[in-house]
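Exercise: predict the fold of this chain.
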Amino acid sequence: MKLPGFVGPSNVLSSTLEDCESTINWFKESGQVGTPKADAYLRDRPGLGFLFSVGSDPVECLFYLDGRAFGVAGTTFFEQFDDDTFVVRGTVANDGIDLATMCSGGSASTPNMLIISGSTGYTFTLATNTLTAIIDMDFPVNPVMCEFFAGYFLVLDRNSRSIAWSALEDPSSWDTLDVLETSWAGDNVAFIKRNGTHIWTGGTQTSQVLYATGGIEVFAPAQESLIEHGTMARFTGQLTPQGVASLDQDARGGGQVILFRGLQPDAFSTYAINLEQISQAGLLNASYAFVITMEGHVWYLLNNRNETNTFRLTPVFDFTEQQWHHWAHWDSTACQWIPFRGQCHMFAFERHFIGDRLTGAVYDLSFANLSDELADV
């Protein structure tokens, strides 16, 4: 029996008489080529397999480059290996304000990793496995996140328009003159994200695009790149194959999820997803997102760090199918759905890994996992 419209997205509107569809832990997959029996079918999402636990504090960041994988869980900085074991590499600060971020200059820099955690900067030397707090007086006072681009480590200073960059290939050396302060608009910068040959600076109401000048000033705003859209949650600013996506905010309002296709912002959240955002009014600045590319699908997962007021379900946009669905876990005791436990993602050793938003657990994300093996909270 065919049920027209059964294979489709989540779409619970304000008038449920109009539409009240919830696609939970399933997603649309089109037949695409050949002679399929139907245009599309519903496929179950990949499951979580428990690998190890770093401790009780949530996993804030996972990072991989050239054969080595690292993470931050609370105050613990650790390295993960391809045999699903880990070793603690040091202790970092944790102030509960923002998620930790990491970047690396690869083999060209010494030391060659930068970690921002708890409003503090650290370098990690891969050759000696040494974690060191940055003591340079010119390092930003309240660092919130980092990026690497064109040989430089970039750091955003919290509640400011200032973006600083390191000495070439050296995240331990900083100069007070190596700072760009965005000035085309008055709002603070919320996040920085490398996108191709540019650095995207998402502000609280506007966005600008920086480029490497090759000159003395090093970085400068690209001409005509001031965009009248910013973000209300810095950690929703993520790079997708089609551009930078984030939870929108500008002088007129916010709450839509937008994609910057070049310099043109397009909203890709639906009325139903926007309605979910409205239900979290006042708490959306605690939202975060991460992107997973898996078996041809590109998913943008949106969640909230405020555990008592988070989304009932985790909204997920499939860029491949251009539809929203939801990921969640069923609480058989309370008989209710709880949001997906992931807080960060890493593709390493040709596998997908998820960091737990409630505990120090790291999971394997795979279609081979037919259920979720979650760590106890």
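Check your answer against the key: Helices lie at 271-278.
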